[in-house]
Amino acid sequence: MAIPAAAVIVPLGVLFFVSGLIVNLIQAIFFVIVRPFSKNGYRRINRMVVELLWIELVWIVDWWAGVKVQVYTDSETLEMMGKEHALVIANHKSDIDWLMGWVFAQRYECLGSALAIMKKSSKLLPVIGWSMWFSECLFLERSWAKDEPTLKLGLQQLKDYPQPFWLALFVEGTRFTQAKLLAAQEYASSNGLPVPRNVLIPRTKGFVTSVSQMRSFVPAIYDMTVAIPRDTTPPTMLRLFKGQPSLLHVKMKRHAMKDLPETDEAVAQWCKDLFLAKDNLLDKHKIEDTFPDSEVHDIGRPFKSLVVVTSWACLLVFGTYKFFHWSNLLSSWKGLTVISICLAVILVLMQILIQFSQSERSTPANVTPRTNNGGESSSNVHNKQE
């Protein structure tokens, strides 16, 4: 990490991790005191508390980096967003797709109940992973034998969620890279499937299970297609922290859950067809640099995140001043050493957060045909499992 980047990231990291630990502590207290007696009471409180942390990252997108998001959608979708439970599926195009989901959720007053199905290691991330665990995000091990009962139980527990929630599921199972696309294309060619050009092959098991478990209480699926315009540098966490702007085009489409097929096989095919249509849509976007036949909507840049971050910053500055005045840490080499170590730890934690978000470091999709010990192509094994 370059020194100029570190000079920016350390202050942001101090703000994020100190405020995050305060939020985690409040979450833990209410988890112990309130949740055993009123699960929905805890959920309502946690929704407000965790938003005070997650909105800091929305502030980085909106105000610090100045990322602009152009939304293409119809009036029906726009009208229903934030007023209902929804399963959100998207192509995993950039390193910050999940953060774009938070930006949308914040605009429609459900940031604190923006949940996700994520890999198990995510919950170990200091502050942000812990906050997600307290908020009932679902963590999977990418082993279906273990994940199926975990997923079903977690989804059923959302049945009585008291306020509108969004549950994000990246059906491709991993972030998009050219290497993963080549592997997906090889797999598709060897198995007589449509060869993808802009997306990876969807992994339908999680989606089918989600639909079957949530059909009775989640009325909608929000289909989100993320595209990066020509001559635009893809956004990353590092670019955000360094205050470098970017532009994203996002196509949103609402599908009524009741319109989906009834059988698991048909739901899986519906998902595959959706990604075929998404692939074609992204082809058109490459040509026209926009999503054709869609209305463009401005989602604005609300002041709420700016107010929250400013309040956190003032509280941190005041608390730091009082602490140093009381402790006299700045007056001794020992105190300066302790401060330096704390700042170094913050820098390392921020580096971990940045690296965790990078697509090159994400777990690759297992789509490359190869022969296993029994002599059977892993392509055929994959087909049997799906």
From TrEMBL:
Ranges where the record places region Disordered: 363-386
InterPro entries linked: Acyltransf_C, Plipid/glycerol_acylTrfase
Cellular component annotations (GO), alphabetically ordered: endomembrane system
Catalytic activity: a 1-acyl-sn-glycero-3-phosphate + an acyl-CoA = a 1,2-diacyl-sn-glycero-3-phosphate + CoA
Segments forming domain Phospholipid/glycerol acyltransferase: 86-208
Keywords: Acyltransferase, Membrane, Transferase, Transmembrane, Transmembrane helix
Enzyme Commission (EC) number: 2.3.1.51
Taxonomy, superkingdom: Eukaryota
Molecular functions per Gene Ontology: 1-acylglycerol-3-phosphate O-acyltransferase activity
Pfam families documented for this protein: Acyltransf_C, Acyltransferase
Pathway assignment: Phospholipid metabolism; CDP-diacylglycerol biosynthesis; CDP-diacylglycerol from sn-glycerol 3-phosphate: step 2/3; Lipid metabolism
SMART domains named in the record: PlsC
Transmembrane segments: 6-34, 306-324, 336-354
Annotated GO biological process: CDP-diacylglycerol biosynthetic process
Family (UniProt): Belongs to the 1-acyl-sn-glycerol-3-phosphate acyltransferase family.
Entry protein name: 1-acylglycerol-3-phosphate O-acyltransferase
